[in-house]
């Protein structure tokens, strides 16, 4: 079990949604903290008062049961529990000594009005140019176009084809998810797509040609329905991804310097102007504008798709990397005063937190400070 998987399981335990088997697995998990780097553990479990709070939370959560067993490993667990409990466990490898001096008494950033996290919101533009605001549309059929019914159910959209009506393979729809939003859609072939904030996907109402081609801007996670006679192609402005049936994530934001394609299962081919690579599960292909070719490396796939599960997962990220994600999810502008704070940061946070709460956790590093003015976040060393 990775730390990220532990965090997700612990959140289920706290919310009362664990199965008995998952609860038993959680209680038995003691010895896998070697997956965290030693300096990360030291940096997260630093202050005695903070440790006392963590241990007290463990006892409170378990109702006083299994305390003896938990006591034997709670210090090691502190690194992960700080993240899971939202106590602001962020650390930077370049500044361990500074973090060891951080105290709970540090004054957090103040915000006059909480900025809420993103929600399920999107617009759908049909082939005739009409636009449907999906979060305002009632559940049920939101549009009927030829042989296809477009249905909204439980905050998601799906396309259902039937034998009646004409099929127009040139009829394209576009789902646009604004900053501060996310949405999921099931395409006519059964492929499921989750769109992250500030993203859009253009696709046919019905896949009727020799290939299934969609166009992505931003970030999306795909679970492609297998069809060996009709390959699935995701086109972005920097590369194409060719698949038959598989699960993968594409991060293709224009304001990111790198396009990332991460494969969870199956196989995909990532192709750019002058290069092409085949990815295996657990591998990521990277295309950087300043470097030729495609880099391939192994990654923690749970970290790459944590956004879909409702988490920010930071590992060796600069504050610039982090604030771009925060800006998209909370729909805020970012201003830097005094330059970018140095160092790299790590940690895991729920995307369901109000923005001031998340920023307060970042400030516990002592390396960065924030001020909120309306919907503008000012970042200072």
Automatic annotation (TrEMBL):
Residues 175-269 form the FecR protein domain. Residues 311-379 form the Protein FecR C-terminal domain. It comes from the Bacteria. Keywords: Membrane, Transmembrane, Transmembrane helix. The chain crosses the membrane at residues 73-91. The keyword Membrane applies. Pfam families: FecR (PF04773), FecR_C (PF16344). The keyword Manganese does not apply. InterPro entries: FecR, FecR_C, Ferrdict_sens_TM. GO terms for molecular function: sigma factor antagonist activity. This is FecR family protein.
């Amino acid at each position: 079990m990775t730390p990220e998987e532990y965090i997700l399981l612990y959140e289920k335990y706290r919310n009362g949604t664990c199965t008995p088997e998952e609860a038993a697995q959680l209680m038995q998990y003691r010895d896998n903290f070697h997956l965290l780097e030693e300096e990360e553990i030291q940096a997260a479990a630093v202050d005695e008062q903070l440790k006392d709070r963590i241990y007290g939370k463990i006892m409170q959560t378990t109702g006083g049961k299994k305390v003896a067993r938990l006591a034997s490993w709670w210090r090691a667990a502190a690194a992960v529990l700080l993240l899971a409990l939202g106590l602001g466990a962020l650390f930077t490898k370049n500044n361990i000594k500074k973090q060891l001096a951080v105290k709970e008494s540090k004054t957090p950033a103040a915000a006059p009005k909480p900025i809420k996290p993103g929600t399920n919101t999107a617009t759908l533009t049909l082939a005739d140019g009409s636009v449907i605001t999906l979060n305002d549309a009632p559940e049920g059929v939101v549009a009927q176009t030829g042989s296809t019914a477009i249905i909204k159910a439980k905050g998601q959209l799906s396309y259902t084809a039937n034998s009646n009506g004409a099929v127009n393979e040139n009829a394209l729809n576009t789902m646009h998810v604004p900053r501060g939003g996310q949405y999921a859609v099931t395409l006519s072939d059964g492929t499921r797509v989750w769109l992250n904030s500030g993203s859009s996907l253009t696709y046919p109402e019905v896949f009727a040609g020799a290939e299934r081609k969609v166009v992505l801007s931003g970030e999306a996670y795909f679970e492609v329905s297998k069809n060996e006679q009709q390959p699935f192609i995701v086109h972005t402005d920097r590369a194409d991804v060719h698949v038959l049936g598989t699960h993968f994530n594409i991060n293709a934001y224009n304001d990111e310097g790198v396009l990332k394609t991460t494969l969870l299962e199956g196989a995909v081919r990532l192709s750019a102007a002058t290069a092409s690579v085949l990815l295996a599960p657990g591998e990521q292909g990277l295309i950087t504008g300043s470097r030729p070719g495609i880099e391939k490396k192994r990654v923690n796939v749970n970290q790459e798709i944590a956004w879909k599960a409702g988490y920010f997962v930071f590992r060796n990220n600069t504050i610039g990397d982090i604030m771009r994600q925060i800006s998209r999810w909370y729909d805020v502008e970012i201003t830097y005063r005094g330059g970018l704070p140095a160092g790299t940061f790590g940690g895991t946070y729920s995307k369901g937190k109000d923005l001031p709460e998340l920023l307060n956790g970042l400030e516990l590093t002592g390396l960065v400070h924030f001020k909120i003015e309306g919907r503008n976040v000012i970042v200072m060393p």
